[in-house]
Structure formats: C-alpha cells, structure tokens
Amino acid sequence: MSFVGFTGLLITWRGGPGRGEFDEFELFQLMSVVVVGLTVLFGSLGVIVFADLLGPSAALRVASVGLGVVDIGVVVWSSRRLSAMRVPDHTSRKSRLFEAAGAAALIVFVACALAPGLPLFELGLLLFLALPALVFRFVLVQLARRR
C-alpha cells in the first residue's frame, strides 16, 4: 500500500493542480504503480482466504498462477504502452529492467505453482513489488532532473 501512498506524493511533487493535466506517460507511470501495488496486496491477502478454503498447497498454487497471469499482463501491457507512446530511448532501456523483474517474478510464480512453498511465494511477491519500485525510482529521477 505504500506505493499507492507514494503515488499521492508524486502528484504533490509534480507541482499540484496548477500544472495542468497529466500527460499520457505520467498517467501510465501512476497507473502501473497503483495496479501492481494493489495486485500484490490482494494476492498476498487472498492466499490466506484460499488456504482456509483449499488448503495451503492448493492455495499457493492458485495464487501463484493468478499472480503469474497478472504479471504477464502487466509486463505486456507496459511494453505495448511504452512502444505506442514512443518514449525516449533512455526510457525504453529502463523498461528492459522492468521486463526483467517481471520475468523473474513469473519464473518464481511458475516454480511455486509446480512445487508450492511459502518462501517461494513470498520471493515472487517481492520480485513483483520490484515493478512499482522501479517505476517509482524512475519517476523520482525525472522529478529531480526537472528541478
């Protein structure tokens, strides 16, 4: 949830309402931070509910598959959006790091779906959280350069 809170800070640091509308790239950044942050929140809490209903191993399998699918969706959506926006070359290079973190999380979620284990699931969640962290870091660097 801290990433969602950071999104509010980004809006404030950006200059507030006097600066006008968000451009497409800024909206993309904010949306990706919020979507992944909320997905990890509900994914990590949802496994508890599934564990009560299905048992721990089945719950980890279901949650891993679900988060893996969302991970693929987020990375594909992000890559397509960045391509469509024709962002500067330095931004597309940074998106490769985003894609690598998404791929690493996906590999861990697939491994957890095949051989369920709480430490493996938690590692997948941490790697998935790297996505909004990378976006947030990129936004902070951009804001620092503007000032």
Topology, number of strands: 0
Give the C-alpha Rg: 17 Å
| Helix and strand pattern | HHHHH
* Helical content band: over 70%
The overall pLDDT average reads 80
Biggest β-sheet strands, sense, barrel: none
Residue share in β-strands = under 5%
Shape category: elongated
List segments where confidence is low: pLDDT < 50 over at least 5 consecutive residues.
Answer: none
Distance, first to last CA? 27 Å
Describe the structure.
Helix content is 88%, strand content 0%. The chain is mainly α and 147 residues long. The radius of gyration is 17 Å and the shape is elongated. The mean pLDDT is 80.
Q: In a few lines, what is going on in this structure?
A:
The chain is an all-alpha fold. It is built from five helices and no strands.
List the helices and strands and how they pair.
Layout lengths: L1 H13 L9 H31 L1 H30 L3 H26 L3 H29 L1
Helix pairs in contact: 1-2, 1-5, 2-3, 2-5, 3-4, 4-5
Key structural traits:
147 residues, mainly alpha
